[in-house]
Amino acid sequence: MKPFFGLRAHDFGTFPPQELAARIASSGATCVQLALAKAFPGGHLMPAEFGDAGLAEIRTAFAANGISVAVIGCYIDTVALDENAREFSFKRFEAHIDAAAALGCNVIGTETGSPIPYLDQPDGRETAFRVALQGLHRLVKAAEQKGIRVGVEAVAEYHALSTIEHIRTMIAEFNSPALGIIFDPVNLIPLAGVSDMDAFLDECFATFGERIVAIHAKDYQMVPSEKGLVKLGDLPVGTTGVMDWVGVFKRLIAAGKHQVPILLEDTSPAHALDSFAYLQRAWDEALLLAK
């Protein structure tokens, strides 16, 4: 039972497809989360700007280097106050849904955007969450028609979708096989941290374990501040972080999700090999515990 390790393509820079794929292959990655606008020269926001030949070139270049596109990253602001900007974002995401087959991928990933513009309203965070749900429901419906899954990533406190309860509500309201969850456990941990990591992970997997379509792998520390210990996130795995990756993998395996891509975040080419080695050791330990 081998893990499916990968990373964000743009963490290795912006290069033409063949060069970027070769650079990533040297890290040992077998898959990527690919943000077309960030990974390749030109900053093209719409897949159509690559043309059919350009998309085929991307898929061929990665396949030739033993790499699949596990997730297409199209991270949009689903709660922008400017309705024209929000509409453009939705159309851009829908264009990525249409292009997914050309890249051999069936998951398009997004976060939800900041609730800050809503906080001057009564119940502003809840309002932002509801606005996000409206937009995500539209995207999930579009994905259903193409056999694609929308992978939604929650971020504690900083985004409109920010809690386990939010995810539970979204799953219940959508009731769609086209809704998936990109689980970034570090992002979902609040600034104050968690007092019981096992309880936190148990609740995550009980709520959305069967919906997980990708794992984002990074780490965090709890550091002193004027308000007490606070989370310092976005650290490469294998440093001095406190995320329980054995616990994540043990639950992932128990949920029958051992083929879900595990994607490094915030990891430079210089650290990728060590990070993969660290995660492999955690995976091997989790396998033993799962038996």
UniProtKB/TrEMBL annotation:
Task: List the keywords (alphabetical).
Answer: Isomerase
Q: Show the InterPro entries listed in the entry.
A: IolE/XylAMocC-like (IPR050312), Xyl_isomerase-like_sf (IPR036237), Xyl_isomerase-like_TIM-brl (IPR013022)
One annotated GO molecular function is: isomerase activity
Which Gene3D superfamilies does this entry report, sorted A to Z? Answer: Divalent-metal-dependent TIM barrel enzymes
A Pfam family for this UniProt protein?
A: AP_endonuc_2
Quick check: keyword Isomerase in the entry?
yes
Superkingdom is Bacteria
Answer yes or no on keyword Isomerase.
Answer: yes
Tell me which residues make up the Xylose isomerase-like TIM barrel domain: 22-277
Protein name per UniProt: Sugar phosphate isomerase/epimerase family protein
